[in-house]
Amino acid sequence: MRKYQQLALLLISCFSIGVLLMYKSENNRLKYVLKYVNFFGRSDAAILRRLEKNATKEDLTLPALSKPLPVFQLIGESFHAYSAFWKRNELVARGEAHILVVGKKGAVVDFRCTLIYDGGARSVQGKFRFQRDANESIAEDKSTTFTNYNFYCLVNRDFGKPEYVSLMDTTASLKTQMKLRLRYLKPSNKNTESNLLARLPATICVDLVTYNMSSNNNNLLQFFLYHQALGVEHFLVYNYDQLPEKVISVLERTSMHLYALPFNFPFVQANGTVTRIRQLILTDCLLRNSNYAALTMLLTPNEFFYPSVRIVGDQSQLSFYRQLRHYTTEISRFQMATFSVCIDTNRKLLIDNTHYDPELKPPHKMFFYRLDQQSSQLLALTQAQSVELPLSSAFVHRYVHCQHVGEDGLHDWRNGVREDFMEHINALRNEVDVLI
């Protein structure tokens, strides 16, 4: 009998040890999850919203930023129009169509324009004028075959909202009128406008036109997931067809909105044309987001925006949008310092790369645009004097492969970041780590 009791005690002891080991393993797993997800705080809600597509995701807002689709359309013999916008002057009874155009270098500009109303039932002759894009670099003239233009068609009376603008090249051998559907710079419904402003605190325009798509899919995913963790849910992707299907399939399972914008550029793209192409995309981005988003910026997928706080906050958190309120309403363009951060292929996340080359200068300046304070001429945003934000407020990392390091060597970007700012970046890093 005693032997059976000893055997029973031995079995119970083995079973107890097994249960204890299993409990310890599960407890470690639970601690690992709780490290990234706070079930009693913001992180839990934020991450879970992104892990699974939101059932209340509204497709009604999708056409607001993507329609009408921009596409290069031949007008005359030497010019192509990309997109057209209608802006009504609220102070006087008149309005103006603004068309983004590229033309052959040296071509003569002589057009007639007409605004079309009521589905073609009424046409009004407009006054045509044009401007060469003031942001174009004269140094690029020798290496480019095209010029960026802004065409305008003005009417001095209020005839309502036109649906199309028609352009005819008077220098062409075959004089035909080409119609372009207009996008309104203000939504037709004021309630819709206020709702959209509340729903779209920020958008990001993604430049896949000038970006080298040889990057791996993991880096592309990180770009979208990181900026969504900041609070950006809406991305306007130029040259959307270049986005890999594997990346799209993952992003479509989240709560973010991707707006597919084509870019069938009619001229040869060379190294010297990058600045002009980017400027055209930026102008379309600003006009397209007018009155639909409070903040916007143009990024390539290797550029990450790091503000000191999230773009969207709650009552207990300071948002980046509210942080900008101490600047006067006349300031709508904010420049940020850009660091060329070297990619270490052994690191899983781009955000984990810590060293940058101070001698490797970025190809363009980085700006954030505030669109809630509408000026009389929105295009002036791309030319206005900017305010440079301090490093304590925001900066941009441009992730690159550092093949030739400068004489000054590499520097650790974390040395110039405050402790609370660094904690904020680490929290975003952990969210991306869970999502990726």
UniProtKB/TrEMBL annotation:
This is Glycosyltransferase family 92 protein. GO terms for cellular component: cytoplasm; membrane. InterPro entries: Glyco_transf_92. Belongs to the glycosyltransferase 92 family. Its main location: membrane. The keyword Metal-binding does not apply. It comes from Drosophila lebanonensis (Fruit fly). The gene is LOC115619998. Keywords: Glycosyltransferase, Membrane, Transferase, Transmembrane, Transmembrane helix. It comes from the Eukaryota. It is found in: Membrane. It is an enzyme of class 2 (transferase). The keyword Membrane applies. Its EC number is 2.4.1.-. GO terms for molecular function: glycosyltransferase activity. It is a single-pass membrane protein.
